[in-house]
Amino acid sequence: MATLLRTVFEQPDADAVQAQMRQVLDALEVEFPKAAAHLDAAQHDLLAFTALPREAWRQIWSNDPQERLNKEIRRRTDVVGVFPDRTALIRLVGAVLAEQNDEWTEARRSMGCDLLARARRHPIESATTDTDPSTELTA
Asked: Could you list the pLDDT tens digit for every one of the 139 residues in the chain?
């Protein structure tokens, strides 16, 4: 099943991705109807990456930045060893996250500004058009 689903993400363009997803859902419907229904319900979210430029797809799929961040947090907490209390741990992890944020803001971006600008030109359509502004999260 995983191999079949991976074929969706190996397609060269957005139309081919949509067509392959339809084929995968049809194939899964026979043996795994619940899985097919679940994937069909999540199809909009799963294929949201197709609204972005093709050059960004691989970076969107990758979780390498997250893995690097987790590794750095693990390394720093291993150096300390035992924390006196929960707040000490939260301070250390918060410092690592702030440091990482500064690094990504200034220099090490996974996507360049030009790619992000092109991605903004193609806004991702929402599955629902009725959005209540009072429920939106704000910073």
From this structure: 888 888 998 899 999 999 999 999 999 999 999 999 999 999 999 898 888 888 778 777 777 888 989 999 999 999 988 899 999 999 999 999 999 888 777 666 656 666 666 666 655 555 554 555 555 555 4
> Which residues are CB-contacts of 110 (< 8 A; sequence separation ≥ 6)?
59, 62, 65, 104
Contact 43, 30 (CB under 8 A): no
Domain ranges of the chain: 2-51, 63-119
How many of the other CB atoms lie within 10 Å of CB of 77?
Answer: 15
Distance CA 131, CA 91 (A): 36
Cα 136-41-21 angle, rounded to 5 deg: 120
Do residues 115 and 55 touch, judged by C-beta distance below 8 A? Answer: yes
Q: Exposed, middle or buried: residue 17 (CB in 10 Å: 0-12, 13-18, 19+)?
A: buried
